[in-house]
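Bit of a strange request maybe. I'm writing a small parser for structure token strings and I need a real example to test against, not something I typed by hand. Could someone generate the tokens for this chain?
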Amino acid sequence: MICGEVIIGANCHIAFGAVLTAEGGPVVLGSHCIVMENAVIRGTVRHPVQIGNQVLVGPRAYLTGCKIGDGVFLATGTTIFNGAQIGARTEVRINAVVHLKTVLPPDSLVPIGWVAVGNPAEILPPGEHDKIWKIQKLLDFPREIFGLERWESGKSVMPEIAHRYTAYLNQHRGDTILE
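Reply from user aminoacidic:
Good idea to test on real output. This should exercise your parser:
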């Protein structure tokens, strides 16, 4: 499915079940890109998606609001968050995560299942939750994505996030589907 301001460069292949959605902000793919089955690429208002040339986005990968350099390999199940920047020739391997506003220089490697977080990026194994959270907390996901203050212990920001996000996502409820 392709929705909104999506620009696909020459000689790209978008596989069955892939979703490229630019409801919030544009999605631009360079030339010779491959987007495999069930991958999702989502542009946002604050963070459009820009993908360079000769990039492979693996099956079940999820990219939102990020910049991807030329010659990047994003393996099956990778997740790239808003504001992340992936340098040229980088490999993000199976089920690895590149967190919010994380910057990976060219020729980086995020091993299978590992987490890249921060700027400059630290690449940590998934079992290092405390180290990951120490960096991730400063990146302030609730403020960056939803414009909300982080909630106090014993409280939840989820009611407000759910209210805002459902209103935003429902703005296209009445659209006409083109055949």
